[in-house]
């Protein structure tokens, strides 16, 4: 699992779009979408929304949390609290996708880019500190709440390698006793 | 047949067929139009193939090779000026859509209702002044009626036989006279219609307006259209007034719309912003030093006569008069601070009248994206033009075309926002070497009196040398020709002001022993319609018809032909005769 795969999985999230064409129900493997009516909001998976956007057939409505104030609040809660704060599902991937592909539909996309990156930085920093603390304490289990797929993916390889090393060292220490 | 509804009669038809072959001429306007059209095809999942064509023979070969698989062919900036069906003889079910900025359209193409469709708007059709169809093609109904009459009258063998026969003969004589009069009128119409050739609205702009109709226009496509229009202006194919009127009437609306969108969202960083502003007419000055740029600008070179020894000193005096320090001018323009830049530009603008420098400033478009340097549309057009024609060693015209297309795409790539101006910057470097070569050749031609005033026109042969590799296509030879004509007229104190110039460039490689001949009109000849009309193409045609010189009239632009070296004496004598009757 890497970041690209996380993004791929995030494209299943449903988004609101405003199409500029009219069409009947479309039967897809994941379910039915439509019927589409011009200038009426429709709810489709993100991958379909991006596909239509690229062909200039719709306008994407950004989710409620993707605003300057919304993300600023999230950053405030994140930096003030020690444990991870609750964030929308697939927050990082969706934010990234929307800011890249439909920056004309998202207001203040420049500012949002920096804010989203700030959010990511603070969460990743927390991940790092908690990983280090966990390894130093020598505990066998740890429980973390409110993690998203991206952070898990980010930490997975290094955490796995680190715990393997710790195991080997501890086993050596036990054997030598 | 003319198509005025681009969307319903052209685009929707191609969308239904789902496959198109796009044949593109090798010029900047065509490359830009092609880019816009391909973007529309990609949005709508229309399968396409793109092939560049450099002349009529290549067009015919390509059509023959692909006509069994592709029934819809789109020709961009080629194929409008000669009867397509006669020259190419395609199979019967192939339909051609022509988007061409060359005028006048061949009348066979205009009146062919089924297979050849020309995209043109109402104003251009009116501008064209096509003679009506029944005055060009003999109406066959009349003839059959008359035959019917005469056969009827032959059937009635009655006592009035003699009277009938007299009436018969009279009828036939009258018919012959009518036919002769009609033929003469037809000849006059054709003469007037085909007399001049000129360039009309840019194909890239037409394609952009189609994209706008389909509501798929973006700032990137607007930039393609802008570069197409500016390339026509830079090459001298359209007059100043027409360029300004195009910019104001048709482009300003879109520029304002995209800027307004960009402003309202304050997304300055990644979006392509296009602005229209007064710009200095010095070539490539943003990417060069002011001094070098002025050394390669036709108006300054001619004004200060930089090919003489006194010229360099005059240049220094000129700069001192303007109040610019030599250090400022010889530094890279981008290295100057922004106040210095504004100061320099302002000085040049205010002092241009004093020095009688025509067109020091002109309205032009500037694209800025992200934090990289902004590009002027004229520089962009020049860079693309040079990339299309200056063949790097071992590369063919086809690869030049695709490299130009990819330069444009790389600059505009919006999908991954990895806008890459590196290819454009390479193009600008090549353009600098090209401009240096042009200036060198002009100086050589003037100082060594290579320009021969032969009666009705001026003739110049380019000498063999390392610079010759730059002058292979219309854009390069025409830039040289315009520069040289201006310099020569100034150097000879306006003695030869009203003469056209003919340039002969020796070719090498496959065409060893042939000359590429280009003719341009005298300076400052704009028609009353505001077009740069040229009769050179027609003159060449008449010379080829009258004398038996070995000439290949392969290029889409009729002013450019290939001539066998041994026949050049006869050709130019015949041209002299033809031009004398005109002038």
From TrEMBL, chain A:
<dbReference type="InterPro" id="IPR021151">
    <property type="entry name" value="GINS_A"/>
</dbReference>
<comment type="similarity">
    <text>Belongs to the GINS2/PSF2 family.</text>
</comment>
<feature type="domain" description="DNA replication complex GINS protein PSF2 N-terminal">
    <location>
        <begin position="4"/>
        <end position="61"/>
    </location>
</feature>
<dbReference type="GO" id="GO:0071162">
    <property type="term" value="C:CMG complex"/>
</dbReference>
<dbReference type="Pfam" id="PF25005">
    <property type="entry name" value="PSF2_N"/>
</dbReference>
<dbReference type="InterPro" id="IPR007257">
    <property type="entry name" value="GINS_Psf2"/>
</dbReference>
<keyword id="KW-0539">Nucleus</keyword>
<keyword id="KW-0235">DNA replication</keyword>
<dbReference type="InterPro" id="IPR036224">
    <property type="entry name" value="GINS_bundle-like_dom_sf"/>
</dbReference>
<comment type="subunit">
    <text>Component of the GINS complex which is a heterotetramer of gins1, gins2, gins3 and gins4.</text>
</comment>
<dbReference type="GO" id="GO:0000811">
    <property type="term" value="C:GINS complex"/>
</dbReference>
<dbReference type="GO" id="GO:0006260">
    <property type="term" value="P:DNA replication"/>
</dbReference>
<protein>
    <recommendedName>
        <fullName>DNA replication complex GINS protein PSF2</fullName>
    </recommendedName>
</protein>
<dbReference type="InterPro" id="IPR056784">
    <property type="entry name" value="PSF2_N"/>
</dbReference>
<dbReference type="Pfam" id="PF05916">
    <property type="entry name" value="Sld5"/>
</dbReference>
<feature type="domain" description="GINS subunit">
    <location>
        <begin position="72"/>
        <end position="167"/>
    </location>
</feature>
<dbReference type="GO" id="GO:0000727">
    <property type="term" value="P:double-strand break repair via break-induced replication"/>
</dbReference>
UniProtKB/TrEMBL annotation, chain B:
<feature type="compositionally biased region" description="Acidic residues">
    <location>
        <begin position="140"/>
        <end position="149"/>
    </location>
</feature>
<comment type="similarity">
    <text>Belongs to the CDC45 family.</text>
</comment>
<dbReference type="InterPro" id="IPR003874">
    <property type="entry name" value="CDC45"/>
</dbReference>
<dbReference type="GO" id="GO:0000727">
    <property type="term" value="P:double-strand break repair via break-induced replication"/>
</dbReference>
<dbReference type="Pfam" id="PF02724">
    <property type="entry name" value="CDC45"/>
</dbReference>
<keyword id="KW-0539">Nucleus</keyword>
<keyword id="KW-0235">DNA replication</keyword>
<dbReference type="GO" id="GO:0003697">
    <property type="term" value="F:single-stranded DNA binding"/>
</dbReference>
<feature type="compositionally biased region" description="Basic and acidic residues">
    <location>
        <begin position="154"/>
        <end position="170"/>
    </location>
</feature>
<keyword id="KW-0131">Cell cycle</keyword>
<dbReference type="GO" id="GO:0003688">
    <property type="term" value="F:DNA replication origin binding"/>
</dbReference>
<dbReference type="GO" id="GO:0006270">
    <property type="term" value="P:DNA replication initiation"/>
</dbReference>
<dbReference type="GO" id="GO:1902977">
    <property type="term" value="P:mitotic DNA replication preinitiation complex assembly"/>
</dbReference>
<dbReference type="GO" id="GO:0003682">
    <property type="term" value="F:chromatin binding"/>
</dbReference>
<dbReference type="GO" id="GO:0031261">
    <property type="term" value="C:DNA replication preinitiation complex"/>
</dbReference>
<feature type="region of interest" description="Disordered">
    <location>
        <begin position="130"/>
        <end position="170"/>
    </location>
</feature>
<protein>
    <submittedName>
        <fullName>CDC45-like protein</fullName>
    </submittedName>
</protein>
């Amino acid at each position: 699992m890497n970041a690209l795969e996380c993004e791929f999985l995030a494209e299943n999230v449903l988004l609101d779009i405003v199409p500029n064409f009219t069409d009947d129900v479309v039967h897809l493997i994941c379910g039915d979408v439509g019927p589409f009516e011009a200038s009426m909001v429709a709810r489709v998976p993100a991958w379909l929304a991006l596909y239509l956007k690229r062909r200039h057939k719709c306008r994407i409505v950004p989710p409620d949390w993707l605003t300057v104030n919304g993300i600023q609040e999230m950053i405030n809660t994140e930096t003030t609290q020690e444990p991870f704060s609750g964030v929308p599902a697939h927050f990082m991937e969706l934010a990234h996708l929307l800011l890249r592909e439909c920056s004309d539909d998202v207001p203040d996309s420049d500012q949002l880019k920096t804010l989203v990156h700030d959010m990511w930085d603070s969460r990743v920093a927390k991940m790092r500190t908690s990983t280090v603390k966990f390894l130093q304490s020598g505990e066998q289990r740890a429980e973390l709440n409110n993690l998203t797929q991206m952070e898990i993916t980010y930490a997975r390889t290094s955490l796995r390698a680190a715990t393997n090393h710790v195991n080997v060292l501890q086993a050596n220490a036990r054997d030598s006793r | 047949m003319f198509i005025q509804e681009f969307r319903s009669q052209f685009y929707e038809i191609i969308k239904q067929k789902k496959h198109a072959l796009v044949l593109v001429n090798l010029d900047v306007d065509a490359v830009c139009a092609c880019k816009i059209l391909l973007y529309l095809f990609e949005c709508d999942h229309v399968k396409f193939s793109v092939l560049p064509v450099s002349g009529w023979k290549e067009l015919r070969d390509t059509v023959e090779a692909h006509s069994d698989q592709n029934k819809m062919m789109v020709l961009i900036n080629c194929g409008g000026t000669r009867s397509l069906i006669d020259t190419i003889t395609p199979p019967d079910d192939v339909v051609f859509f022509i988007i061409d900025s060359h005028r006048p359209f061949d009348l066979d193409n205009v009146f062919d209702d089924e297979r050849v469709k020309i995209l043109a708007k109402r104003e251009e059709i009116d501008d064209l002044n096509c003679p009506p169809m029944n005055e060009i093609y003999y109406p066959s109904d009349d003839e059959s009626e008359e035959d019917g009459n005469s056969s009827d009258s032959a059937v009635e063998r009655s006592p009035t036989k003699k009277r009938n026969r007299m009436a018969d003969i009279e009828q036939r004589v009258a018919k012959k006279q009518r036919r002769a009069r009609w033929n003469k009128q037809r000849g006059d119409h054709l003469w007037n219609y085909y007399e001049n050739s000129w360039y009309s609205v840019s194909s890239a702009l037409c394609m952009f307006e189609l994209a706008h109709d389909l509501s798929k226009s973006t700032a990137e496509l607007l930039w393609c259209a802008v570069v197409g229009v500016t390339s026509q202006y830079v090459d001298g194919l359209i007059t100043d007034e027409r360029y300004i009127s195009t910019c104001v009437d048709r482009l300003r609306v879109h520029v304002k719309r995209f800027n307004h969108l960009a402003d309202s969202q304050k997304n300055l960083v990644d979006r392509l912003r296009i602005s229209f502003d007064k710009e200095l007419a010095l070539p490539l000055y943003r990417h060069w030093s002011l001094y070098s740029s002025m050394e390669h600008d036709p108006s300054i070179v001619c004004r200060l006569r930089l090919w003489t020894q006194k010229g360099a000193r005059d240049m220094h005096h000129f700069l001192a008069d303007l109040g610019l320090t030599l250090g400022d001018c010889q530094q890279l323009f981008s290295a100057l601070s922004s106040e210095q830049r504004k100061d320099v530009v302002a000085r040049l603008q205010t002092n241009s009248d004093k020095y009688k420098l025509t067109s020091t400033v002109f309205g032009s478009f500037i694209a800025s994206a992200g934090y990289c340097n902004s590009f002027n549309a004229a520089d962009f057009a020049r860079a693309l033009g040079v990339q299309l024609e200056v063949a790097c060693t071992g590369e063919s015209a086809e690869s030049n075309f695709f490299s130009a297309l990819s330069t444009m795409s790389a600059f505009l790539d919006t999908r991954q926002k990895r806008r890459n101006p590196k290819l454009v910057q390479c193009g600008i470097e090549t353009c600098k070497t090209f401009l240096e070569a042009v200036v060198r050749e002009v100086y050589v031609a003037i100082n060594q009196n290579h320009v021969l005033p032969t009666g009705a026109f001026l003739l110049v042969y380019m000498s063999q040398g390392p610079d010759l590799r730059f002058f292979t296509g219309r854009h390069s030879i025409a830039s040289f020709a315009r520069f040289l004509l201006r310099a020569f007229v100034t150097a000879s104190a306006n003695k030869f002001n009203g003469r056209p110039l003919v340039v002969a460039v020796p070719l090498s490689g496959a065409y060893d022993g042939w000359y590429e001949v280009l003719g341009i009109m005298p300076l400052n000849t704009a028609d009353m319609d505001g077009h740069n009309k040229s009769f050179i193409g027609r003159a060449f045609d008449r010379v080829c018809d009258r004398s038996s010189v070995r000439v290949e009239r392969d290029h889409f632009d009729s002013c450019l032909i290939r001539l066998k070296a041994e026949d050049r004496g006869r050709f130019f004598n015949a041209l002299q005769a033809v031009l004398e009757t005109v002038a």
